Amino acid sequence: MQKIHSNTITRISLLRISLFRLIAFGVVIAVLAIFLVSAANTGWAVSDSNSSEESNYDTDNTEQSDAEFVETVIMTGNLFADAKIAKQKQVPILLLFTQQSCGYCEIVRSDFLRPMLLNRDYDNRVLIRQIEYDGDDVIGFDGKKISMDSFMEPYNIGFTPTVIFLDATGKELTEQIIGITTVHYYGGFIDDNIELALKKIRTANNKLATK
């Protein structure tokens, strides 16, 4: 009788041990499953975030490329039309004299004038144009067609790049910027001349308005 009771206890103990092991194994599986699901969700979130950032980056780059493509320095041949715009906006005309073989002209365009066009702060401060030094006939400020040599003669243009600042009548408002002496200060020279020319135009307009 004692032996049977002992065997029964042993079996119950083994059963309990097996049950505990099964429960422990189930707990481990559950924890592992939770970890894997969490890791997968985190991975998808990171992937979605990266995809979104890449999409935004591509969109920004596309928009920037489009802006750079559109915002080019206009090659003018009609100063009469340009003068109408400048007069309406009450801003000076920045006119770059350029030619195809002029490497420094490209520096002025790419490093200074095009960034100014992309900066909306300049919209109401200056009208930016370029003109071919050795180009064909142009429409002058009086609306009449003249040769390029005749157009340049009053301004005594002899080199490129040369930048001049004009009012709507074609009158010079500041000293000319001839060539590029120091690249580091060139942008400052342009800004200073814009401010001076703008001040002269608006002062003159205010005097007319008070008469």
Describe the structure.
This protein is an alpha+beta fold. It has 2 domains: 1-67; 71-210, Glutaredoxin (3-Layer(aba) Sandwich). Helices cover 61% and strands 11% of the residues. The protein has helices at residues 2-70, 79-89, 103-118, 148-152, 183-210, and strands at 93-98, 127-132, 138-139, 145-146, 162-166, 177-178. The strands form 2 sheets. It has a 4-stranded mixed sheet. A two-stranded antiparallel ribbon has the order 3-4. Helix 3 (103-118) links the parallel strand 1 and strand 2 (127-132). It is elongated. The model is unreliable at 1-6 and 43-70 (pLDDT under 50).
Terminus-to-terminus distance: 132 Å
pLDDT under 50 segments (min length 5)? 1-6, 43-70
Number of helices: 5
Helix and strand succession?
Answer: HHEHEEEHEEH
Helix content estimate: 55-70%
Assigned CATH architecture of the largest domain: 3-Layer(aba) Sandwich
Mean pLDDT: 81
Biggest sheet record = 4 strands, mixed
**Helix- and strand-based class?**
alpha+beta
CATH class (first level) name of the largest domain: Alpha Beta
Total number of domains: 2
Shape: elongated
CATH fold description of the largest domain: Glutaredoxin
DSSP strand count: 6
Which short descriptors sum up this protein?
211 residues; Glutaredoxin; four-stranded mixed β-sheet; two-stranded antiparallel sheet; 5 helices; elongated; disordered N terminus
